[in-house]
Design brief:
Length: 634
Amino acid sequence: MTDVSDAVRADVPAPDEGRRWWRRRPALRLPELPADRRGRRAGLYAGLSALVAVVCAALLPFAPVSVNQPTVSWPLDPERPQSTLLTLTAYRPLAMDIRFTCDAVRAAQAGGGVVVSTAAPAMPTAGAVGLIATARDGRLQVRGMDELLVDERIPDGPCEYRITGASSGLPSFVREEPDPADLDAPNPAAFAGPDNAHVTVTRDGRVLESGPFEQLPDVDVLATDVRGLPGGGLSVQLRLDDEFTSSPTVLKSVLIWLTVFALLGTVLLLANVARLTPRVPMVWRFAWPRVVDLLVPAVIVLWIFVAPATDDDGYYAAMARNSALSGEVGNYYQLYDQNFTPFTWFYQALGWWQELAGNSAVQQRVPAAVFGIVTFYALRHVAAIALREWAPDARALRMLAHAVLAVVFLAWWIPQDMGVRPETVVALCGAFTLLTVLVAARRSQPVLAWLAFAFAGLGFSAHPTGFTLLAPLLAGLPLLWPVVRVPGDRLGTAVRAFAVASGSMVAPLLAFADGALRDFFRGQALFLSLQGQDNWTTEITRYQFLLSQIPMGNFAKRGVILVCLVALVWFAALAVAARARRVPLPPRSGTPGRPRRWPSRRCGSPRPSGPTTSARSPAPGRCSWRCSWSWPCR
């Protein structure tokens, strides 16, 4: 829908003008209205509020957080130690303090030989990946980090051994050594060196072994052969690596709330700017939905129950479930529980949904189904806007276009997005970004333009593929320019544009509300220590997966992608052929220029090139655009 004021008096060019598509078509010129002081003042206040939001959001990644420091103490009953599993998601502690007396060593020698072990004692590599202290044949041996730390005769009488260690928590680089000339090579300072950890073994305060190591021992179990130990004499304390679990400090909480209130204030002030701008009122009317408007939701709802499980459903569902329990979103099954900052809010929302609805496959597909239905309606509205301009009189063409949209959307959504992956949110935000850009341009609403940037920020902070949401914003800049432009006032234009763009601050707000920039860099270091980062040169591997006989490459997924690639090539060929034959192409929807026909418009006073009046027209000097409240204009 497009709004124009009653002051519009530009003549519509003749149909035969501008037939060649490369010629610039005459733009619809609006007379410059007198500057409204209240509107400029509201725009200035909106810019100041946006400045507060941008500054606070920019400080959020660097604001301090309160880090969790959990400690494990074992055994529960010092007089009756019992072996226990202790699988750490980060595999290694940040600090350890292991103590045992000579009485515990003698009891272990009589019971089986294991004083204490952090790995399964039966494993041949227990002393390589973990730490194990054994007592056999009157001698005590302590092995750890693939070295023999202590080997001595068990002293007579009372004594106490103590093994302490501390680590900086850096990951070990286990890949092939990177080429120093490679610009994409990871920074060696982000990984553990030979002195990343330090371990000391003492007996009654006398140092038996002390030295640097690359890592502390892994902890999978806490095992012992000691069964009874009157008075105690065996204890283990571990400070776990749980630095990703954090909470905002008072300073960060203040920044968060300042950002929230500043963004809300910007929205209200932009709405006030729109209220002070003269515009044509809208008249809403009810319209019956099309068949596809009911068919697409029905198919998606059916697919909740019949869709097969994807290869990532269990993986991402477990991450979301663990985030609700631990308070941080990590790569639960691998990569040392690598943190997902700044893409965490979706998993936290999914974890909340799991607690509310349950963990069955059907219940976890409900969010994807809702996102799919809403995304289709947004795309359908975009298609209605474009078809109303391109083919206002071709009813059959519009019906065919809506049918094609429904088929194509279902072909994409059903095999690709009926799961728990966050790409569904990216698709939803992309559709709403495109829609709000078009509606903001047609309605000349700065607050809708702000929403376009906010939707883009929301999707950007959900998944790395959210980077694609820059596309509708960049493509829509020519449409949004008249929305933020203040005639004759460059400063006012810049301030209003800044206020509109502040909607993108939703991204850092959601990304770093519960994390810090350090979490992102440490998570990247954990990831890069085990595998390389994909870039545009490795994009071909995705097509290898697509064409392989694996769940990623089933026929439903590969078919729609290959058809889309063929359609893109065919579209490019048609565009080139049209240019060669000087065939005019439809204008871009929403661009300023000569529309093929004005939208449905009712006026009290007829225009020279507009529709005539009727007995049921509004009062003279008033115009209104007729649109459906429940369904878009068709």
